[in-house]
Amino acid sequence: MAVPFKASYPLFLCLILFCGVNCTEFEVGGHGGWVVPKTKDDAQMFNQWASQNRFKIDDNLLFKYEKDSVMEVTEEEYEKCVSPHPLFFSNNGETVFKFDRAGLFYFISGVRGHCDRGQKMIIKVLDIEASPSPQYANGTAPKPHSKSGVAELTPMRIMTESTVFVMSTFFLQLYV
């Protein structure tokens, strides 16, 4: 006997809730975006930003930039700041990169000279079970509009949580 469609709503709702809140999107560098550091003192700004966050499998990085590119490269290519055959390349101005495994990920700008000036970053993705909220290395969530370079509460992150709430409310009303 076929199960009525209404009976499958709770299962569908659980699937939406599970998928909707188990990943986080981090805007690289906060509101500053994926840019060339202005001074030599800022040369480690992306690695400092990365070290203040906790990344897990299925999280996304959002690279925002103008007239630039982002490449995932090997460790050796990261050190040399050059890659003739990157593992990943994008130059569309707003690149989303999804972590599909635990381990180290190396990113550099594809524009000549930008990596040498500090536009590069290493991300460590932890092999942990997905959790319903973002995890930060210092145990606290960053403050909105922070100038520290820590990942901020982006519109995408807020939208994801709001969407899950609205969709769950909608499906609960259909079910009842």
Automatic annotation (TrEMBL):
<keyword id="KW-0449">Lipoprotein</keyword>
<keyword id="KW-0732">Signal</keyword>
<dbReference type="InterPro" id="IPR039391">
    <property type="entry name" value="Phytocyanin-like"/>
</dbReference>
<dbReference type="InterPro" id="IPR008972">
    <property type="entry name" value="Cupredoxin"/>
</dbReference>
<keyword id="KW-0325">Glycoprotein</keyword>
<comment type="similarity">
    <text>Belongs to the early nodulin-like (ENODL) family.</text>
</comment>
<dbReference type="InterPro" id="IPR041846">
    <property type="entry name" value="ENL_dom"/>
</dbReference>
<dbReference type="Pfam" id="PF02298">
    <property type="entry name" value="Cu_bind_like"/>
</dbReference>
<dbReference type="GO" id="GO:0009055">
    <property type="term" value="F:electron transfer activity"/>
</dbReference>
<dbReference type="InterPro" id="IPR003245">
    <property type="entry name" value="Phytocyanin_dom"/>
</dbReference>
<keyword id="KW-1015">Disulfide bond</keyword>
<dbReference type="GO" id="GO:0005886">
    <property type="term" value="C:plasma membrane"/>
</dbReference>
<keyword id="KW-0472">Membrane</keyword>
<feature type="signal peptide">
    <location>
        <begin position="1"/>
        <end position="23"/>
    </location>
</feature>
<keyword id="KW-1003">Cell membrane</keyword>
<feature type="domain" description="Phytocyanin">
    <location>
        <begin position="24"/>
        <end position="127"/>
    </location>
</feature>
<keyword id="KW-0336">GPI-anchor</keyword>
<protein>
    <recommendedName>
        <fullName>Phytocyanin domain-containing protein</fullName>
    </recommendedName>
</protein>
<dbReference type="GO" id="GO:0098552">
    <property type="term" value="C:side of membrane"/>
</dbReference>
